[in-house]
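Team,

Forwarding the record for the chain on the shared tracking sheet. I've put the sequence and predicted structure together so nobody has to dig through attachments.
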Amino acid sequence: MTVEQFAQISNYTTVAATCVLGLALLAYVAEWAFARKVEANAPAMAGSAGPASPVAEESDVEPVTDRFSRIGLVLTVLATALMIVSVVTRGLAAGRVPWGNMYEFGLMGITIALVIYLVLVWKYQVQWAGGIVVAFGLVVLGMSLSTYVPAGPLVPALDSHWFIIHVGAVVLAGAFFLVGAAASVLYLIRARAEAKGTVGPVLRRFPAAAVMDKIAYRVNAMAFPLWTFGALIAGPIWAHYAWGRYWGWDPKEVWAFITWVVYAGYLHARATAGWKGRRAAYFCLIGFVTFLFSYYGVNLFGSGLHSYAK
């Protein structure tokens, strides 16, 4: 196959994956909507149809919610496969590792995040997080598509094995950050319902708030050393070879450091001050926002030596 054909396959599969992820999100939303139907109908049935009717009605609705959950998961698997094809063919079209600009960084990050999510589903049965992970994924994928550039060779400053190590570690850390942020959002929703005693059928499909809080912590704890190595060790070494200095307070470098500080504070507060629950979840989400800005906002609104990565 020619370079142009690989590029076309990458573009087509990216669009297809975006559409499939959109359908997966609809399936997850439908799952939640049918689960809410049980909660909405339960009071009326309890007062009018005797003790057997709620059970019968719920038994009719529960298989529907399970069916939509399975559909959402199958569509997520399909979208992940399409994203893998897109990333691989993008690399073949460019003749290099496929993370030389914002567009490719986003594609790789979403692919890894979806793979991590599916591994967690297989290992820990966390399919309850599918809707949030897919929603976050669509947002980041939309950001990436808005920065599309044709496949091509690296600029000279990027042509180094340290660039591969630097960006590869950062992309992997970002994927973990995304999954951790999804778990934190679900924790906040479930914890609020638990505090008010209003845990309905939708939230009962999720683990307890304490479990989601623990998952968010573990995922971010795995992401932090990757970010430390990729952004603050491999990045400066690569910068020394590319630009003749290790650190120059470039806007991208500054925001990478801000992200590191926020997540370092999050993990330190968890380990030493006993910060769990709501405060830790907000801390985690602030860190994810700084990560998104370092990835997307800096390149759009800032300037500096990293401007070639747009």
